[in-house]
Amino acid sequence: MEFSSHRLDFRLLKAADREIFISLYRDPKVMRKIGPVLSETEAGDLFESVIRTNQKKHFKQYVWGVFDKQTQLHCGLIMLKTVSERKCEIGIMLDPKKMEKGIRWKL
């Protein structure tokens, strides 16, 4: 499942995104308002769980990678998660280096 905006591409995470995913969950700036920084092992385990969940047919949660359309550089993650039958939650994690270059305004 993929979609895009004028400046960004969004695609479900895949195995090749492991390093990027782990780096975000290990970055204190990114995790400041989310929760504790994860260890390498914890972030790796979470990544494997996300990949499995992304492959399920029944919607519970999806996590997309966010990529700059021109450069295809990874900018962050977006998650859509079912909270209840009539409620979903969205979460956004952006690479601090990309935020300095204005990526947050492209979302």
From TrEMBL:
All residue ranges annotated as the N-acetyltransferase domain in the record: 7-102
GO molecular function: acyltransferase activity, transferring groups other than amino-acyl groups
Pfam families referenced in this protein's UniProt entry, alphabetically: Acetyltransf_3
Alphabetically ordered keywords of this record: Acyltransferase, Transferase
Xref: Gene3D superfamilies: 3.40.630.30
InterPro entries from the UniProt entry: Acyl_CoA_acyltransferase (IPR016181), GNAT_dom (IPR000182), N-acetyltransferase (IPR051531)
Coiled coil segments of this chain: none
UniProt record similarity statement: Belongs to the acetyltransferase family. RimJ subfamily.
Protein name from the UniProt record: GNAT family N-acetyltransferase
Organism name: Salinimonas iocasae
